[in-house]
Specification:
The complex is a heterodimer of chains A (102) and B (461).
Chain A: H1 2-10, H2 12-29, H3 37-47, H4 52-61, H5 67-96
Chain B: H1 3-23, H2 29-49, H3 57-80, H4 86-111, H5 116-144, H6 155-176, H7 181-199, H8 207-229, H9 232-255, H10 260-265, H11 272-282, H12 292-300, E1 304-309, H13 311-315, H14 319-331, E2 335-340, H15 350-357, E3 365-367, H16 368-371, E4 380-384, H17 393-396, E5 415-420, E6 440-444, H18 447-459
Parallel strand pairs in B: 1-2, 1-4, 2-3, 4-5, 5-6
Helix pairs in contact in B: 1-2, 1-9, 4-5, 4-7, 4-8, 5-6, 5-7, 5-8, 6-7, 8-9, 12-18, 14-18
Classes of the chains: A mainly alpha (102), B alpha/beta (461).
């Protein structure tokens, strides 16, 4: 219990950010027309690829002799970047089709 | 942390918020996606070059190689995929993101020994990451059609026991403290299995909801890893996706008039046996077949035609032919529009993407609530490859699994032409009494072939 309270007092800013971010996320999406649900899901999916930053940190900090960390980090970076690049590219392709024709 | 890097992360975070906001409006969506992408690339480049620890060159080479491989693979998949395969693809990419979070957790467990708070963050990253990984792969396989729904006996009970077990076991690892790699591997394995168990009983028609939910979970996994590193861009980016994904999940459930728990626990056709028998008994009537030339005559003398496109249209790659048909009818002075059910296709908004791909005018796509009152003065409704979204059982058969789902009220129109390959039940596996309606004529055949015939018949009139 003490540990939890300590964590809260040490990370108060983090907790504020967390809560505000939750509300922003909800507000941003609430009134989106269903036409855009598919591209939106795909775009949000690309954003969740931000996890790649963590994968990069793993690889940057790994001891070059630590093959397990390097190997797992390598796979994590590959999968993360596929998520990012593929996600944004495919969302762009989808939205390209919505372009208003004059 | 390097101040330049902090500023880059701040900029990236703002681009995520703006990008997500702009993705929600048709005119700005494309730009929003690009803005978020630029922010993401900035964050990635910044992370690689602007840190303050010593990095051996071999690590840099490996990072470069990993980025190169992943970029090429991701790019190729993205430009090659057919638009009909979009839901599968989102699911697959999402699984990759989850797997990435899982691997980070596994590596970092060894580095963060001792601190209970950090250990629980690592464990949460591993558990959520692996559940989204295998869950997304199962969703992908199901949408692909390469996997059927499998229901183990008492699967709800079984799944809940496994979930509770996972939580209890995680708590145990945190309480134990210290370094227990063996336990972590057990946790990893159990989470991977739970991901499979969780998605496997859920019916194919509910997959979009599941994908959206899993997408939200990947965001949460990313945010948790962000807490681990005290990294703001991961934290905020992840939470944004997490909460946006969750809201989107509820919006989709609303469109089908079902609750989330009903989707997850009361998988479609849960009472499948009784539903099936009732449907057979009720739909024993006769079906009226029609030909392309008869349908063409019907269409030719109509004043108002509404086209109801479904996934079958997309599978047959008939988006372009239907656009040709629409232009032909319009040139004859007939009022033509498309009725778009919120969950037409395999994902909300999927049908809009497919029709936009074949240059159908955006203004011709009418949403369900606007088109429903118009069916009464519609002469001909042409249903192509859609089934469940026009099934009157949603209105009048309380035993039907789709009872209560809002549908397109096509039965109010004067004539209904339904194009289908055969009399097989729809994706949700339910029989449709609309096919036996007196006003209905069935135009059997592949959507593309049938519509092509229809177009050539019309041209000769």
């Amino acid at each position: 219990m003490n540990e939890l309270l300590e964590f809260i007092s040490n990370n108060l800013e983090l907790i504020y950010i967390l809560i505000l971010a939750i509300f922003i996320g909800v507000e941003l999406i609430k009134n989106v027309p269903s036409v855009l649900h598919t591209p939106l899901m795909s775009g949000a999916n690309a954003l969740s690829g931000v996890v790649i930053v963590g994968a990069l940190l793993v690889m940057l900090q790994a001891n070059p002799k630590d093959y397990l960390s390097l190997g797992l980090g390598f796979v994590a970076v590959v999968l993360g970047i596929i998520n990012v690049i593929g996600g944004f590219a495919v969302t762009d392709r989808m939205l390209q089709m919505f372009k208003k024709k004059k | 942390m390097n101040i330049t890097l902090s500023i880059i992360y701040l900029i990236a975070t703002v681009t995520f918020v703006i990008g997500l906001k702009m993705l929600g409006h048709p005119e700005t969506a494309k730009k929003g996606n690009l803005i978020a992408a630029v922010g993401m690339i900035l964050a990635i480049i910044g992370t690689i070059f602007l840190h303050d620890f010593e990095v051996p060159s071999i690590n840099y080479i490996l990072i470069g190689a990993a980025l190169l491989v992943g970029t090429i693979v991701g790019w190729l998949i993205a430009i090659k995929v057919e638009m009909t395969k979009m839901p599968e693809l989102v699911s697959l990419f999402n699984g990759f993101g989850g797997a990435s979070a899982m691997l980070i957790g596994v590596v970092e467990y060894g580095n963060k020994v001792g601190d209970a708070m950090q250990t629980s963050t690592v464990i949460a990253a591993i558990a959520i990451g692996s559940i989204t990984f295998t869950g997304s792969l199962i969703a992908w396989a199901k949408l692909n059609g390469s996997m059927k729904d499998i229901r183990l006996p008492k699967y709800n009970l079984l799944n809940n026991i496994v979930l509770l077990g996972l939580i209890a076991f995680s708590t145990y690892i945190v309480m134990m403290g210290g370094n227990h790699f063996f336990l972590i591997y057990i946790l990893l394995f159990a989470s991977l299995v739970y991901g499979i168990l969780f998605v496997i009983p859920i019916g194919g028609a509910d997959m979009p909801v599941v994908i959206s939910l899993l997408n939200s979970l990947t965001g949460i996994a990313a945010a948790i890893t962000g807490i681990l590193y005290g990294n703001m861009v991961m934290l905020v980016g992840g939470i944004l996706v997490g909460s946006a994904g969750l809201i989107l999940t509820f919006v989709m459930c609303d469109a089908m008039n079902r609750s989330l728990s009903n989707v997850i626990f009361g998988a479609f056709g849960g009472g499948g046996d009784t539903g099936g028998i009732a449907a057979v008994g009720k739909t024993g009537g006769t079906v009226k077949k029609t030909t392309a030339s008869d349908s063409a005559i019907l269409l030719n003398y109509a004043n108002k035609v509404v086209i109801v496109p479904g996934y079958g249209l997309a599978v047959a790659q008939a988006q372009h032919v239907i656009h040709e048909l629409e232009l032909l009818l319009t040139s004859k002075g007939i009022d033509v529009s498309y009725a778009i059910h919120p969950v037409a296709g395999r994902m909300p908004g999927h049908m809009n993407v497919l029709l936009a791909e074949s240059n159908v005018d955006y203004d011709k796509l009418i949403e369900m609530d606007d088109i429903n009152p118009q069916f009464a003065n519609t002469d001909v409704v042409l249903v192509v490859g859609a089934n469940d979204v026009v099934n009157p059982a949603a209105h009048n058969d309380p035993s039907s699994p789709i009872y209560g789902m809002p549908i397109l009220d096509v039965e109010n129109a004067k004539h209904i032409i339904i194009n289908k390959r055969s009399m097989n039940a729809g994706y949700a596996g339910i029989q449709n009494e609309l096919f036996f309606n007196q006003k209905t004529s069935m135009l059997f055949g592949d959507a593309k072939a049938a519509l092509t015939d229809l177009v050539s018949e019309l041209k000769n009139m």
